[in-house]
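User: I'll paste a sequence; please echo it back and then give the predicted structure.

Assistant: Echoing your sequence first, then the prediction.
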Amino acid sequence: MWNIDEFTKAADITVGELAAYVDRSQRGDAPVVRREPPRELAGRLRLGELIADGGMTPETYREFLRTFLDEGTRLHHPAYMAHQSASPDFPAALADFIHGATNNPMAIYEMGAAAATVEFEVLRWMLAKVGFPQGGGVLTHGGSLANLTALLAARARVAPQAWEEGVPGDLVILAPPSAHYSVSRAASILGLGQRAMVPLATDDLGRIDITQLPDISGKRVMAVVAAACATGTGLYDDLRAIGEWCRERDLWFHVDGAHGASALLSERHAPLLAGIELADSVIWDAHKMLRTSALAAAVLVRREGDLDAAFKQEASYLFYGDQGFDLIGRTVECTKAELGLKIFLNLAWRGERGMGEHVAGRYATAHRFWELARRREGFTLPYEPESNIVCFRYGDADHAAIRERLMADGSFYLTSTELNGVRHLRVTVMSPATDDATLERLLDAVEAGWTS
């Protein structure tokens, strides 16, 4: 049984230390990233000793937590501009705390009626936003699993016998080379193999070229995949044109909106997703631009029955009787966290408008970086950003080396990618704390990192 007094003390310590951690992070008063080697860090954290002997108390827990937090990556930091992981808002953090204590795996309704009901309402809201009034959905643990689930639904529609008889050898998936790696990974997991991935023609920035959509004669297309937006560049495919092309040919149209679907909440940026309602399936990650902690991703389908057809299962200990409220038939997971609570609490605190303003703010800051960099000699930016992602180069610098220098001293954390085979630095604005002064310092640091 829990020692309630000990729990209360430890919880108070947790709140205090986390509050200090976030405050320091937002003010930029600590390195944005630290990467001490595992062996040394394990020693400082006394991991082996504590695993073997136990005996942690609230007091020693405080020491552990302080060191643990200090040696991680600070996503609330103004200089965090790396991967597409949210700077989480505190209501989502409260949801994680609640789930950690209650542990209601609500894929089975009777195991967490309140959590399941919250998820139903969150999904209903998301379905309305993408234009699926008769659709269905489920929240799952991450965009990779969401893409796999959506493609399972596509397979069930095109080849309903595949679950029992195996995958036909003539199925193909049409997707641009810039598609998230989880799409091609799903092809192999589904038994299609990489031979089934047929690349769509793109422009120089990786967007699907709608003037060169292929002749599909003789091909049995399982799905056509478009990006909203692309992971590497943050650019959106022309969803309406692709969707209309798919409709004319009765092809399953899947939109990977993991990162960019949240722009639906911004009046200014929603037009980037025009045509999303033509999709048969959409994925939308809350742990990117809706400020939830990882993981919380939605799989949304235009026809509710398509998601129900994705899986066929028999297990007498789970599937029997009236199960009209269970979500387990729509997911890979049997045990599923209370994911909807994170999204709901953020919405309950900030409102749909507040969430939209967050998205618009990050997009605006990225555009501001583009403006500032263009004014400086030596910087090359291959496109005007459509989202919160900007790719750039500085002269003929070794861009991987510049990135490594910035990370080594903890001053900035950004990533890199290749466009047309050329390495670019990549900024992803995620933290509300990132301002003009931060962007100017980053540009100064890139210049200094090359000349030093």
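Residues 186 and 241 are 25 Å apart (CA to CA). The chain has a mean pLDDT of 96.
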